[in-house]
Amino acid sequence: MESSIAQDVDSFDQLDLSPVMRRALRHAGFEKPSPIQAQLIPFALDGEDVIGQARTGTGKTAAFSIPILEQLDSLEDCRDPQAIVVVPTRELADQVGREAERLARGVDTEIAVLAGGKNITRQLRQLENGVQIVVGTPGRLHDHLQRRSLRTDSVWCVVLDEADRMLDIGFRPQIERILRRCPRDRQTLLLSATLPPTVRRLAESYMSQPRVIDCSKNEMAVETIEQRYFTVAQNRKGDLLDRLLEREQPEQAIVFCRTKRGTDRLYRQLKHTHDNCGSMHGDMQQRERDRVLQSLRDRKLKILVATDVVGRGIDISTISHIINYDVPQDCDDYVHRVGRTGRMGRDGVAFTFVVPGEGEVLTSIEQRINKELKRDSIEGFEAVEPPPKPKVVEEDSEPARKRLNPMHRKVRRRL
Ligand code: ADP
């Protein structure tokens, strides 16, 4: 893998985009490319494989959608999918589909969202009628491959979005099968907040001399988001949450819990005191999850209690507060949770409740983000033993590995 140096791009005009795309970007209100867009788009337009390390909320979706849209053949020329975007959750699939539609403004483009939990008959009909871009979750995409309803012969680009998350959830076999079914000379774009060995191994096996772009350091949530923690006894977390919500008066908040049952329990407690709160976890019906998300988007919901799986990838710019009611199970989850606020440079604040004995988790989070969290307090909640003083150390970056086996690359352009 080859690390690539950032280019100095501060306008979309420098990116060699078609007039219709420039108009769509203006219409979407995008004035200048975000760092991941500035770096990824030129390589992607040149047909190269790219690994982009960037957290959610940094404009990754447009970074891979723009080069795909710019190079699509029209539906008259090709009725089979040309690009497949694989994402970890149903909500993210909808969101990516919507964003791609927005950027496709001005050009007829067929985009199908193939997410689990949704009506398969409709998806089959859509595929039968011809699509250019498919956005889906690994399970449902795999399902369509098995039914032979998803044809991959014409696919020239595969995007793996939030690759680290997909591997965490256990989607490796489905992802590998999707990749193996696509033509070998395709382009592969892999986006991930982190590059643990599992992601690197996937990249080594299925990508060809990928460019590595690292936008994670300067865009880490810590830059624009104030992050604090409270120490609190387990049985007083509910009271602390009440007091914190009262103090903060959030515009919109997501409260993260570790388990589905914990989420349900906290939601039941909260709804006695707050009219506009909702909950979301993986056991809920898809229709219900969509409804909750829409209410959040419409600002009918002020507080959402959620687990990590569904919390990830939610792009709602009005979320002002993240509250980690339970500390996240691993540090990457922390980065993702906190990434729900402060999107595209807006201010946000994140609070983490730490119970005695969880000091080490706090320390490892601080090591991961390379920053100390500020201790906060509310009257009546100071009595708990503080966790051991954390030490902040610089994270070692793993050495980049080089991969051989160059493959023929296509360079395509929409005129
Ligand atoms: P990610 O895919 O990294 O999670 P998104 O693509 O969802 O992030 O982007 C977050 C938000 O920022 C979206 O609402 C998107 O429309 C907006 N956005 C993306 N790129 C730009 C840009 N260059 N200028 C302004 N807003 C942008």
Task: Write a structural description.
By secondary structure, the chain is an alpha/beta fold. It has two domains: 2-214, 3-Layer(aba) Sandwich (Rossmann fold), CATH 3.40.50; 225-375, Rossmann fold, CATH 3.40.50.300. The protein is 38% helix and 15% strand. It has 16 helices and 15 strands. It is globular, with a radius of gyration of 22 Å. The chain binds adenosine-5'-diphosphate.
Distance between the termini: 31 Å
Please give the domain count: 2
The radius of gyration computed from the alpha-carbon positions, rounded to a whole number of angstroms, is: 22 Å
- What is the tally of helical segments? 16
Q: What ligand species are in this complex?
A: adenosine-5'-diphosphate
**Which residues form runs of ≥5 with pLDDT under 50?**
389-415
Task: Report the CATH topology name of the largest domain.
Answer: Rossmann fold
Largest sheet: 8 strands, parallel
CATH classification class of the largest domain: Alpha Beta
Record the strand order, biggest sheet. Answer: 1-8-2-7-6-3-5-4
Mean pLDDT reading = 85
Q: Which structural category fits the helices and strands?
A: alpha/beta
Helix content: 25-40%
Shape label: globular
How many strand elements?
Answer: 15
Could you give a quick summary of the protein structure above?
This protein is of the alpha/beta class. The chain has 16 helices and 15 strands.
Strand and helix layout:
Elements: E1 2-3, H1 19-28, H2 35-45, E2 50-53, H3 60-71, E3 83-86, H4 90-103, E4 111-114, H5 120-129, E5 133-136, H6 138-147, E6 157-160, H7 163-169, H8 172-181, E7 187-192, H9 197-206, E8 211-214, H10 216-219, E9 225-231, H11 237-248, E10 253-256, H12 260-273, E11 277-280, H13 286-297, E12 303-306, H14 308-311, E13 321-324, H15 331-338, E14 348-354, H16 359-369, E15 374-375
Parallel strand pairs: 1-8, 2-7, 2-8, 3-5, 3-6, 4-5, 6-7, 9-14, 9-15, 10-12, 10-13, 11-12, 13-14
The structure holds adenosine-5'-diphosphate.
